[in-house]
């Protein structure tokens, strides 16, 4: 923006424009009258156009935030917005009403012109004026209505006014200049964002679109504990994806990649997503599927995502009726309900399960497996590229194979319990210790006990000023020993239960054998008796027959 303030005195321009508007309206009516009278006269039409150009030397270009039924904000609008932020630098560039948003620098604000404000600009001697305005929400079912936000919300616009004589310069050079500069500003001001589809009030009352906060997760691959070879493989995979635009275009695939992260709770799945986002410098869209009403809403949400983003669905097995888990939960509630007669403790379980179900019922989503599949690789993934989709789950075996087949979830990454390598890594990160006499104990215990990286990390975190590497490692060893004892006790209990079950089964079998044998003997005896009786009866009959013959 070249010296905005030198060009336009806002007050004067407003008055002049208003006067011109009044004069022009009157004249335009006159011209239309002229046109009506000479409707079929080409000459008069040319004349009226020339007259209009003389009286109204201003041309305008309007850039709408959503236009032509678009489902997401137009890039041109965002670029113009970023470009105009520069015009309001410092004291606001003469603009009287400004909008402020937080800047990267926590002490500063990014200022932009508010609605119905004007800002002037100059480009190679040509003066131009930008005006920001909004129009009232539309509920007319017109283009974009179906998609919600574009129509239901206020519609925002920028209007650029310039002189007729600068038409070629403005349209041919100034507007491309604005877009280029706007993009540069956007890159400069870019703050990574964490989007979620649960806004303010959340649930069904919300308009089901994205709201965001600045993404500031500190986790990186440098602080993520996992097998180094596996970690390198993932980082290489991400780098290859980022640079593979041409490859994806050449093979005709949408520029996207799916990752499935699975493993027990606390093994670093969510942490891995943060590390991925930090590594790639991408935004994160965290979809809460239970808050998405329909497949159509899911599609809309997806379309509103920008490129260079990671789209995350956590605990996919719990989010949808993809796996039957929901029904199981219901069953759990019933079971707990039935069991509740047995004691108070179980009453609590029934109540908890019921409450869980209640929450679930409230947010019953009609998103289906096919909706999600469509979302991942259907037609919609063709709209814009450079997106990574991540699913996480604790129960990979419960997922529908269609959901996680390669091509949808291209890379399956297992996040597992802490091994000694991971422990050493965490000890370095958390305590800055690379070797310690207690390492051998930890190594031996980790071979016998399963502990998540989350638990190991927690033990390695100093809890007070008096705590150091020695105390933290001692705490970890103690926790591992306790876990080992617990595991051993559990194993012994399980073994005892199994032995009891086996003994019971054996006793049952023997009893069955015994009763079976006795029954067989009785049957045999009964059979023999019956044969004898039949034989004696037969003899008696013979004798009677013989008597009759005689
Ligand atoms: N591999 C790891 N490396 C470093 N820190 C870890 C690792 N795994 C877990 N942590 C720590 O444990 C905490 C919990 O981990 P995280 O939330 O990533 O687990 P999760 O696998 O997503 O669990 P859930 O299945 O319950 O969602 C994190 O704050 C992180 O600091
Ligand atoms: Mg998690």
TrEMBL record:
For activity, the cofactor(s) needed are: Mg(2+)
Matching entries from InterPro entries are given as:
AAA+_ATPase, AAA_N_dom, At3g28540-like_C, ATPase_AAA_core, ATPase_AAA_CS, Mitochondrial_chaperone_BCS1, P-loop_NTPase
Q: Which UniProt keywords apply?
A: ATP-binding, Magnesium, Membrane, Nucleotide-binding, Transmembrane, Transmembrane helix
* Pfam families for this protein: AAA, AAA_assoc, AAA_lid_At3g28540
Chemical reaction(s) catalysed: ATP + H2O = ADP + phosphate + H(+)
Q: Where is the composition biased (Basic and acidic residues)?
A: 332-357, 489-498, 507-532
User: Molecular function terms in GO for this entry?
Assistant: ATP binding
Outline the extent of the AAA+ ATPase domain: 255-419
Which Gene Ontology BP terms does the record give?
A: response to stress
Comp. bias intervals (Acidic residues)? 534-550
Where exactly are the transmembrane stretches of this chain?
Answer: 7-28
Highest taxon, organism lineage: Eukaryota
User: What segment(s) does the record annotate as region Disordered?
Assistant: 331-357, 489-550
Q: Which family does it belong to?
A: Belongs to the AAA ATPase family. BCS1 subfamily.
This chain's protein is named: AAA+ ATPase domain-containing protein
């Amino acid at each position: 923006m070249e010296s905005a303030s030198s060009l336009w005195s806002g007050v004067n321009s407003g008055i002049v424009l208003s006067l011109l508007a009044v004069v022009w309206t009157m004249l335009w009516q006159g011209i239309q009258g002229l046109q009506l009278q000479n409707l079929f006269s080409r000459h008069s039409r040319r004349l009226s156009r020339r007259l209009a150009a003389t009286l109204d030397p201003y041309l305008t270009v309007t850039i709408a935030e959503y236009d032509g039924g678009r489902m997401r904000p137009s890039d041109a609008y965002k670029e113009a917005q970023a470009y105009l932020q520069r015009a309001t630098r410092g004291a606001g560039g003469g603009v009287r009403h400004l909008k402020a948003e937080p800047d990267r620098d926590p002490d500063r604000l990014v200022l932009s012109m508010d609605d119905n404000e004007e800002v002037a600009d100059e480009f190679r001697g040509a003066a131009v004026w930008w005006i920001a305005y909004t129009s009232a929400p539309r509920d007319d079912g017109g283009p974009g209505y179906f998609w919600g936000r574009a129509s239901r919300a206020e519609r925002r616009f920028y209007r650029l006014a310039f002189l007729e004589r600068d038409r070629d310069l403005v349209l041919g050079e100034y507007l491309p200049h604005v877009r280029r500069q706007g993009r540069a500003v956007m890159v400069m001001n870019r703050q990574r964002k964490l989007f979620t589809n649960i806004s303010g009030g959340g649930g069904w009352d919300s308009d089901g679109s994205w709201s965001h906060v600045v993404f500031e997760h500190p986790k990186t691959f440098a602080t993520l504990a996992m097998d180094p070879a596996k970690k390198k493989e993932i980082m290489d995979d991400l780098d290859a994806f980022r640079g593979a635009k041409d490859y994806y275009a050449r093979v005709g695939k949408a520029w996207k990649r799916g990752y499935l992260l699975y493993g027990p709770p606390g093994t670093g799945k969510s942490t891995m997503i943060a590390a991925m986002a930090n590594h790639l410098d991408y935004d994160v869209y965290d979809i809460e599927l239970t808050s998405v009403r329909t497949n159509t809403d899911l599609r809309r949400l997806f379309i509103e995502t920008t490129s260079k983003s990671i789209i995350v669905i956590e605990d996919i097995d719990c989010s949808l009726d993809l796996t039957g888990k929901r029904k199981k939960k219901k069953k759990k509630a019933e079971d707990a309900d039935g069991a509740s007669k047995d004691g108070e403790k179980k009453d609590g379980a029934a109540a908890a399960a019921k409450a869980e179900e209640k929450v679930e019922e409230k947010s019953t989503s009609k998103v289906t497996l096919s909706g999600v599949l469509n979302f991942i690789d259907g037609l919609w993934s063709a709209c814009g590229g450079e997106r990574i989709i991540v699913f996480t789950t604790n129960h990979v075996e419960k997922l529908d194979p269609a959901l996680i087949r390669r091509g949808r979830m291209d890379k399956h990454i297992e996040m597992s319990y802490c091994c000694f390598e991971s422990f050493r890594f965490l000890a370095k990160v958390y305590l800055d210790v690379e070797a310690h006499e207690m390492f051998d104990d930890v190594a031996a215990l980790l071979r016998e006990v399963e502990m998540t990286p989350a638990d190991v990390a927690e033990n390695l975190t100093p809890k007070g000023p008096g705590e150091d590497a020695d105390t933290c490692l001692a705490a970890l060893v103690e926790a591992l020993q306790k876990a080992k004892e617990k595991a051993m006790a559990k194993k012994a209990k399980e073994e005892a239960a199994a032995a009891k079950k086996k003994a019971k089964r054996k006793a049952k079998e023997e009893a069955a054998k015994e009763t079976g044998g006795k029954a067989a003997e009785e049957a045999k005896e009964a059979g023999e008796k019956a044969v004898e009786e039949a034989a004696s009866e037969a003899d008696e009959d013979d004798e009677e027959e013989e008597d009759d013959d005689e």
